[in-house]
Amino acid sequence: MGSYKVAVIRGDGIGPEVVDATIEVLEAVQDAVKGLSLSFDFVEAGDGCLRTRGIALPQETVDAILKAHATLKGPVGESAADVIVKLRIMLDLYANIRPFKSYPGVPCLRQGVDFVIVRENTEDLYKRYEFSLDEGNTAVALRVITRKCCERIARKAFELASRRPRRLVTIVHKSNVMSLTCGLFAKVCKEVAKEYPGVSYEEMYVDACAYNLVVKPERFDVIVTTNMFGDILSDEAAAVTGSLGIAPGANIGDKYAIFEPIHGAAPDIAGKGIANPCATILSAKMMLEWLGEFGAADLLERALIKSLSDKKNLTPDLGGKATTKDFTRAVKEAVMEACQN
User: Fold this and answer.
1) How far apart are CA 22 and CA 72, in angstroms?
2) Active site residues
3) Domain 1-96+247-341 class in CATH
4) What percent of the chain stands above pLDDT 90?
5) pTM, rounded to two decimals
6) Of 60, 63, 61, 73, the residue nearest 10 (C-alpha)
7) Residue 98's closest CA among 225, 254, 256?
8) Does 29 score more than 80 pLDDT?
9) Alpha-carbon distance 196 to 234, whole Å?
10) Is the model's pLDDT at 339 over the cut of 80?
11) Are 55 and 22 in contact (CB under 8 A)?
């Protein structure tokens, strides 16, 4: 157990609501787990920051992230490219880890789902190398895929798979069309696979993967793919498991890490008190794991599962009528009950 400083970006829309709920849950976990100490450094970024300060990502926010042990971030709005995309590249957070699981009590398309999408996080079309030709009548975007980035994201995927029971990696690409960029990604992933003889792998075109995520998602264990494909498949996977509201994410590099829900700021429901905080809470669980606090992470997830199992605690996106505060209260109570037992 140890003491950790966590930089916190509350974000836009429902961001402050789900982040504040998560901080409450983390404080309950901290009270329940002897020796765990979390301090929170609240910093600004996003649309609101842009409006009031003229910049979406101030330097003092970056400095706070650099000094923290980890960062917990809420969703931001239209300025996402100038906040999280910029931070991913700036801090070399090359691995976007997104677990998907069908939880008890959550209405979903398929039961028995438990897989992880490992998405390359720093290149591809998201490098934003775009320009216009022909007096603006033609737009061009450059897709950048490098051996270095392919190797390290493949290793991250195979290392993760080696710690999971099924030990299977699905390499997702579209090399039959993009023979050079996706071809390089597929080639390098297969080269890295030779370093992990205890892990099996398969290849799948991205359109086939999108199909199988709906018809047979339980077949997947670890999916490794490029930046944009991973972004799109993640939202589909969230729908399969019930809601974007239960889909957490982690942006991880060799030194820094930022944890955030994969959903957006949802301004249409902001301030109504009905936002689902699960994705942010589960992102905090991933943060605890990254810090090495596995017992605290397990306690948090068990409390979350207990709360989801009771339909009276489900928020509207999960078919219930509970408020954000109702669900947060239920998780905090479950944390305390788990400790007493």
Assistant:
1) 9
2) 126, 174, 207, 231, 235
3) alpha beta
4) 92
5) 0.93
6) 73
7) 225
8) yes
9) 25
10) no
11) no
CA dist 338 and 297 (Å) reads 13
**Mode of pairing for the β-strands spanning 257-261 and 248-252:** antiparallel
Which regions of the chain carry the CATH code 3.40.718.10? 1-96+247-341, 109-241
User: ∠ at Cα 98 (181, 152), nearest 5°?
Assistant: 45
3-state secondary structure of 78: coil
CA distances from 84 to 3, 24, 53, 78, 235 (A): 26, 24, 18, 11, 17
Per the structure block, which two tokens stand in for 114?
């438990």
Q: Which pair of structure tokens corresponds to residue 297? A: 């992470």
> What span, in angstroms and rounded, lies between the C-alpha atoms of 64 and 54?
19
CA distance 232 to 105: 26
- Alpha-carbon distance of 150 to 127, in angstroms, equals 15
pLDDT digits (tens, 9 = 90+) for 75-108: 999 999 899 999 999 999 999 999 999 998 888 8
Q: Cα separation of 286 and 284, whole Å?
A: 5
The CATH class for the domain spanning 109-241 reads alpha beta
- Lowest mean pLDDT: which of 50-54, 124-128, 280-284? 124-128
Q: So what's the pLDDT on residue 1?
A: 63
Q: Is the dihedral of CA 75, 79, 80, 83 positive or negative?
A: negative
For 130-190, what is the HEC assignment?
A: EEEEHHHCEEEECCECCHHHHHHHHHHHHHHHHCCCCCEEEEEECCCCCCCHHHHHHHHHH
